[in-house]
Amino acid sequence: MTIKDWFNKRKELQIAHRELEETQIDDSIGKLWIKCYNCNAQLLKKEVEDNMNVCPQCNYHFRINSETRIKQIFDDGTFNEMFTNILPTDPLEFEDTETYKNRLKAANEKTNLKEAVRCGVGKIDGETVSAAIMDFEYMGGSMGSVVGEKITLAMEYALENKIPMIAITASGGARMQESALSLMQMAKTSCAVARLNEAGILYITVLTEPTFGGVTASFATLGDVIIAEQGARIGFAGRRVIEQTIKQKLPSDFQTAEYLMKYGQIDILSSRKDLKSTISKVLKLHKPYEKNEEDNKKIKKNTATKKNTVTKSKKVKVEV
Ligand SMILES: [Zn+2]
Questions:
Q1: Do 272 and 229 contact (CB within 8 A), yes or no?
Q2: What are phi and psi of 65, to 5 degrees?
Q3: Separation CA 229–CA 150 (nearest Å)
Q4: Distance from the CA of 279 to the center of ligand 1, in angstroms?
Q5: 70 lies in the same domain as 55
Q6: How confident is the model over 85-105, as pLDDT tens digits?
Q7: Which of 90, 126, 197, 283 holds its CA 20 to 30 A away from the CA of 74?
Q8: Assign residue 184 a region: left if phi > 0, alpha if psi is -120 to 50, beta otherwise?
């Protein structure tokens, strides 16, 4: 071995060692710490997770996936996913910088999901509902033909079984790789909502960060009761596009849930901690009469017993 070889070998070893160290450091930091996008605080990931993925210092609501959302909203172990056999295809054989097929495959590997929405039946504080929960991590929660179909099927299930329907949205809009096929989903889901309306079935939408484009312009804003999660950005076109088109500066809180509440676009603004109880209250308030019958019978019975007691005591008084 010449001196030159020895130096080269030493350099290689040093580089390899440094790379190893770097990956180890990155791993441990990535796993344990998280930075708040709003207040820049360095937070323990566990602490944020225990706080429902809300920053304990500034109350910033981090984006959450469908899995976490289901855990937070539905009673433990009651959510049964349906329509999992409907999978996306590529009828247009679309290709931009990447083929649509490859994008679908990558999204599946990243999220372990088959599509950007999960539909099923579950219980919220004991109330059975049909639900569609969108996931922004799968291709930006975009609505393609499968997303539209699954949401429509969930609505039809609510219709058949006469149970309330809940749609929890998180989406960038229609899926451009499916072109007109994805745009048709806006009409399809809206027609399904109309059928729910005709049948008098309660339909609640919960808009979460972010809800945009074709989803906002169809089933998301057609709810009987529209709830939005605190801090969520909700709109049709993005802020920059609007500013460029109208050549005006928009207010800083434009397209936030708080802004929409101020102007009457949504009905209820809820923090993540209160979201489950808010939905549950709306469900209980709108419970149909037949389902309340048992409760009503109990109330009637109680009132009747009270009346009897009153009459008896009166009679007693008369006798005296
Ligand atoms: Zn924060």
A1: yes
A2: -90, 175
A3: 23
A4: 26
A5: no
A6: 999 999 999 999 999 999 999
A7: 197
A8: alpha
Quote the ligand 1 centre to 29 CA distance (angstroms).
Answer: 18
The DSSP line for 190-238 is HHHHHHHHHHT--EEEEEEEEE-HHHHTTGGG--SEEEEETT-BB-SS-
Cα of 227 vs centre of ligand 1, distance in Å, is 23
Q: How far is the CA of 58 from the centre of ligand 1 (A)?
A: 4
* 42 and 147 housed in the same domain: no
pTM of the model: 0.82
Q: Are residues 83 and 162 in the same domain?
A: yes
User: How many angstroms separate the alpha carbon of residue 57 from the centre of ligand 1?
Assistant: 5
Is the Cβ–Cβ distance between 138 and 115 less than 8 Å?
yes
**137 and 52 in one domain?**
no
Q: Ligand 1 center to residue 160 CA distance, Å?
A: 44
Whether residue 318 has pLDDT greater than 80: no
Q: Percent helix, strand and coil across the chain, each rounded to 5?
A: 50, 20, 30
In tens, the pLDDT along 167-200 reads 999 999 999 999 999 999 999 999 999 999 999 9
The half-sphere exposure of 184 on its side-chain side, counting CA atoms within 13 A, is 7
Place of tokens 């799968």: 138
Tell me, in angstroms, the distance from the centre of ligand 1 to residue 139's CA: 26
Q: How many domains does the chain have?
A: 2
Q: How far is the CA of 60 from the centre of ligand 1 (A)?
A: 5
36 and 121, same domain (yes or no): no
pLDDT at 9: 83
117 and 211 in a single domain? The answer is yes
Question: 271 alpha carbon to ligand 1 midpoint, in Å?
Answer: 15
Q: Has residue 9 been placed in a domain?
A: no
Do 67 and 127 belong together in one domain? yes
Instruction: Report how far ligand 1's centroid is from the alpha carbon of 54 (Å).
Output: 8
